[in-house]
Each structure stands twice: as C-alpha cells, then as structure tokens.
C-alpha cells in the first residue's frame, strides 16, 4: 500500500498524520516526566539525596505480514539509568540515560529495508512545587537513532516539554502543557499536551504515567492493585520510532498502536519485575529520503507482543 501523502513533515494537507507525529513525541517525553513525578499527595515525604534505578527490558514482536508481501519480526532490548533528587524543599531534578537496540528481521522481500537500529537517549527533568496545588515542569531531551553502520549523530532529535499540573483533590491531578521538537528530516512541531492522574478507588486508577521501557513510553493505562506487591494494568498507546538509515542517508519509521496487559511484582523497594503481553495494531512502516519526503509506506497486520522488564532501585 503506497501512501497518498508523500511528505508528512511539510504538507499541510495531512492533519491526521501530523497529529500522530505530535502525539508520539509526547509519549517519548512523558517517560522522563514520570521519572521526576512524585505523588502529589506525598510532596513532603521526599528525602534528600539521589534516588536511582537501572532498568533492563526485552520485548519480542512476532512475525506479521506486510501488505506488499513478505513478513517481519522485531527483537528489542533496552538498558536505562534514571536518577533524581529533591533540591531544597520544592525542586526535583533528574537525569535519564538510555540505550536501545531493535533487531528487525525481514523475509520474502526483494530488498531488506533496514536491519539493526540503535538508539541513545539523554534527558533532564525539572519539577517545581510552586504551591500545594500547582507543580511546574520542564524536560529537555536529546536522542540519537540510526541503523547499524551509520553514525548515531546522523539521527539526532531534540526538544523540550514544559507545563503545569494542578491537584484538584487527593484523587485527581490534571495538567496542561506544550512541546517543541526538532526531529530527523527537518521535522518541526509545537503542540499542546495533557497530563491525567485519576485515582478512582484505593486500588483502581487511570494514569498517563510511566510506561514500559521496551515498549517506548506511556499511554493511557487502567491500573488495578489487588495486593501490596502486585499491580495489573491494561494499557494502550501510540508509538512512533524514526531513525536514520545507512543507505542513501534515508529515514525509516515504524509506527503502531500496541495494546498491552501487564503484571508487575515488587519484591521490595529495591527490586521489581514486570511481564507484559498483547498485540501491536495499526502498524505501518515508512521509508523517506534524506529530507523527510516519503518514498513508500506499507501497512502490516496485527502482531503478537510479549516481554519482560526488571528494575533495580537504589
């Protein structure tokens, strides 16, 4: 299937695709926000000193058919370090360093679109408790993503997310904000965002909080905590990954909507494990030239997903 919109980044007649691009950037940036976003009900409980964690994750996307014929699968591995601290009584600061490798395997195609994709990400987070109700946040982000054989620096993206959240009650926090992003292929976006944290009961909540590292960020999640050590959730999100290719300096893109069922077990305050399974839906692979003009876009069928994440905090 060849897309009828040949330039997502520059053509004003593709509002739906441009909205999708903006949402995907928000998803990436909210990963950092979740690292520094302490519960509003425990603002005074934070202690001084750095609180850090190391996360390792693996995700498997099974074979799925491509519209033009052929099929592909992906194995994803992630290693991420996060650290944050309270400075004074109202300012939270944090850093995030992450590396991911996505190994694509294509079969029954005349040419291999791309192979192994490497991603290196750096982030800073700032959150200021302006009052008992209002919190302000800012999150600069720098990310490099390129195919193996291509310099990581050729796949640079950077941006800033900023905004505020208001605690209406102990059970509801809402926040407006905006994002400014400069992406691969001259992609430039300014867009609004919304943060939601709604505690429906003592054990059930709806959040746009932390996502699974190997599945690239948060979306809207319905969570249930049946016991102190266990948490179950049903989550859906829009995902988009863009990367510079080794051939002709082209750009690759993989976008989809995964729906995941997760189960998390916390052994103690230092160690937790999360397993997840689900499906990758509405998938599309795109190939663009070095300037970001679309060459070809191919949809792919629903694909099975499964993975495991382990986090050590100290």
Strand order of the largest sheet: 1-2-3-4-5-6-7-8-9-10-11-13-14-16
Structural class: mainly beta
Query: What is the CATH architecture descriptor?
Result: Beta Barrel
The helicity comes to: under 10%
Query: What is the helix tally?
Result: 1
What is the succession of H and E elements?
HEEEEEEEEEEEEEEEE
- How much of the polypeptide forms β-strand, as a percent range? over 45%
- Tally of discrete structural domains: 1
Low-pLDDT sequence parts: 1-46, 211-217
Report the end-to-end length measured between terminal Cα atoms. Answer: 49 Å
Q: Outline, from the CA principal axes?
A: globular
At the first level of CATH, the class is: Mainly Beta
For this structure, the CATH topology is Lipocalin
Q: Largest beta sheet, briefly?
A: 14 strands, antiparallel, barrel
Give the radius of gyration.
20 Å
**Counted beta strands:** 16
Average per-residue pLDDT, rounded, comes to: 83
């Amino acid at each position: 299937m060849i897309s009828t919109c040949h330039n997502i980044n520059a053509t004003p007649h593709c509002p739906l695709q441009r909205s999708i691009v903006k949402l995907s950037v928000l998803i990436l940036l909210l990963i950092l926000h979740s690292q520094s976003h302490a519960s509003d009900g425990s603002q005074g409980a934070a202690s001084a000193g750095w609180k850090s964690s190391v996360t390792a994750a693996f995700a498997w996307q099974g074979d799925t058919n491509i519209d033009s014929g052929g099929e592909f699968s992906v194995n994803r591995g992630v290693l991420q370090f996060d650290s944050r601290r309270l400075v004074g009584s109202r300012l939270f600061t944090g850093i995030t360093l992450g590396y991911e490798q996505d190994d694509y395997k294509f079969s029954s195609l005349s040419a291999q679109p791309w192979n192994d994709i490497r991603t290196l990400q750096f982030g800073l987070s700032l959150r200021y408790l302006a009052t008992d109700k209002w919190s302000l946040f800012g999150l600069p982000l720098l990310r490099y993503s390129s195919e193996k054989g291509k310099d990581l620096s050729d796949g640079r993206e950077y941006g800033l997310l900023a905004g505020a959240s208001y605690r209406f009650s102990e059970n509801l926090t809402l926040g407006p904000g905006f994002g400014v992003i400069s992406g691969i292929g001259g992609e430039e976006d300014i867009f609004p965002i919304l943060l939601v944290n709604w505690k429906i009961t003592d054990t059930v909540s709806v959040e746009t909080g932390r996502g699974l590292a190997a599945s690239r960020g948060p979306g809207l999640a319905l969570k249930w905590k049946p016991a102190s050590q266990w948490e179950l959730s049903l989550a859906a999100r829009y995902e988009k990954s863009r990367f510079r290719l080794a051939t002709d300096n082209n750009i690759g893109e993989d976008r989809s909507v995964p729906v995941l069922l997760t189960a998390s077990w916390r052994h103690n305050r230092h160690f937790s494990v999360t397993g997840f399974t689900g499906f990758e839906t509405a998938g599309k692979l795109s190939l663009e030239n070095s300037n970001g003009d679309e060459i070809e876009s191919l949809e792919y069928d629903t694909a099975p997903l499964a993975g495991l994440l382990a986090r050590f905090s100290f």
